Amino acid sequence: MTQPTPVDAPPPALHLERLAKRFGPKVAVDGLTLTVPQGSMLGLVGPNGAGKTTTLSMATGLLRPDHGAAAVLGHDVWRDPAAAKARMGVLPDGVHLFDRLTGAELLRYNGLLRSLPEEEVARRSASLLEALGLAGTGGTLVADYSAGMRKKIALASALIHAPRLLVLDEPFEAVDPVSGEAIRAILRDFVASGGTVVLSSHVMELVESLCDRVAVVADGRLIAAGTLDEVRAGASLQERFVQMVGQQAQGGESLAWLRTS
Ligand SMILES: Nc1ncnc2c1ncn2[C@@H]1O[C@H](COP(=O)(O)OP(=O)(O)OP(=O)(O)O)[C@@H](O)[C@H]1O
């Protein structure tokens, strides 16, 4: 696979090379190439059905691409999955958790699965539960968690082995503002210490305030990528996004029947 970096440069945190996926007649991802340098926070944005989740699923080894390749810190996700996955923490779309475990048990399970010693798992679990505002609910069954709490425990599970790359599908969805702020602080700190984050979101203001790089996907193709300033080109990200994607809200004449008077 083509590496766009010079031989002696550090490998990118994530490199996607002409990834493609089709579901029956539907082309979900159409030859998408993207490089995410280490130490950056990239926001992946695009309209509903653009192919973001499919891309992230292929990037993280959850969905096998029809064509193309993905590499995490130089390790091919499909040819060397153990090395790639050891370096990556993933918050997938529509997380399926073992919900008959308590939050603390779920973290312990994930920590032990990552070969961490028992005491280290306990230490990291306690600090993650605390940082994410779940300290009082570590003994509650995940089945009894709210949607936002499930998102937070899934994020904690993705962090417990201190990965170098975090791939997060809509990490702020259903999360309250206080927890959202805590998650932002965790992600900023993670990147400041050399980690890399790739997150998808529909909230342009959030991407604008948190990310230093943006990739815009539409119809399974990358239509823009670069630093935040390069992509927004003097406008707000929201304005640029609407211009690029061309799905400006219509006046709603077809909904005239909805007007009551
Ligand atoms: N398992 C599947 N079977 C059939 N079609 C699928 C499947 N998964 C995704 N698709 C289709 O592929 C396209 C891309 O879907 P995907 O979930 O990747 O988009 P997305 O950008 O994440 O959307 P959203 O912002 O709404 O979450 C859509 O047209 C979707 O209907």
How would you sum up this structure, described in words?
This protein is of the alpha/beta class and 261 residues long. The protein folds into two domains: 7-87 and 164-246, Rossmann fold (3-Layer(aba) Sandwich); 96-162, no CATH class. The chain is built from nine helices and ten strands. The chain has helices at 52-59, 81-86, 103-113, 118-131, 147-159, 177-192, 204-210, 228-232, 237-245, and strands at residues 14-23, 26-36, 41-45, 67-72, 75-76, 88-91, 165-169, 196-200, 213-218, 221-227. The strands form two sheets. Strands 6-7-8-3-9-10 form a six-stranded mixed sheet, sandwiched between helices. A four-stranded antiparallel sheet has the order 2-1-4-5. The longest helix is centred in the C-terminal third of the chain and has 16 residues, at 177-192. The model has no long low-confidence stretch (mean pLDDT 92).
How many helices?
Answer: 9
Uncertain stretches: none
N→C terminal distance:
61 Å
The H-level CATH homologous superfamily of the largest domain, spelled out, is P-loop containing nucleotide triphosphate hydrolases
Instruction: Name the hetero compounds present.
Output: adenosine-5'-triphosphate
| Spatial ordering of strands, largest sheet | 6-7-8-3-9-10
Number of strands: 10
In CATH's first tier, which class of the largest domain applies?
A: Alpha Beta
Strand percentage lies at 15-25%
The SSE string, one letter per element, is EEEHEEHEHHHEHEHEEHH
User: How much helical structure, as a percent, in the residues?
Assistant: 25-40%
Reported by name, the CATH topology of the largest domain is: Rossmann fold
What structural category arises from helix and sheet content? alpha/beta
